[in-house]
Task: structure prediction
Amino acid sequence: MSRSFRLATYNIHSFIGRDGEYAPARTLLQIEQPQAEALALQEVRADDRHGMEMLAAMAHDNGYELILGPTMVEQWSGHHYGNALLLKGGSTEIRYHDISRPGREPRGAIEARLTLAGEPWRIFATHLGLSPRERRWQVKCLLREIRRDEAINTVLMGDLNEWYLWGRPLRWLKRYFRLSHQPPTFPGRWPLLALDRIWVHPCRRLQGVRAVKTPLSRTVSDHLPLLAEIS
Result:
């Protein structure tokens, strides 16, 4: 019999809290708390302040495989910025999808295949763009990839940046994933917008989604972490 487990997504705002302080140790404390089997991170920045080294150490200490999905890289320094995925138990296959649009900030998605609770799963971790037209194109690309293998349990999670509840990207995602309730996560102190989302196919596997609201989570980032319970 398969057991339940947790998934989480979190925009960590480059390890910079709402107070403007660069505090990777504080950010990592929040990342550790949900004890999720898979955790998608956005706005992960690697620079000379060693946040990435601390993230790698935290992943190792907690039994995570750390998968980086940079969308921007400084050629002269090697510093990078973008997505990351933390997986317990390791992955069997990793793919990267470039969903950038000309003239816009580069965007990408990490696709990981792995075993969770004794079953095969696919996880897509992403951070979509700020332009409505850009997001429409990106959601079409992701759904096209997702539909390539509908027999496997699938998760799409991340910061989708979609605040138009009536917009086409959310309508398309709801049509495919069906279960649509997602709590607001932005801004972190008084959340009004459900920018961060976790979608699961088949939807019956998703038992609930909640924003993590604690004094720490309201300070660490301008987003709240989003946590899903999977049966």
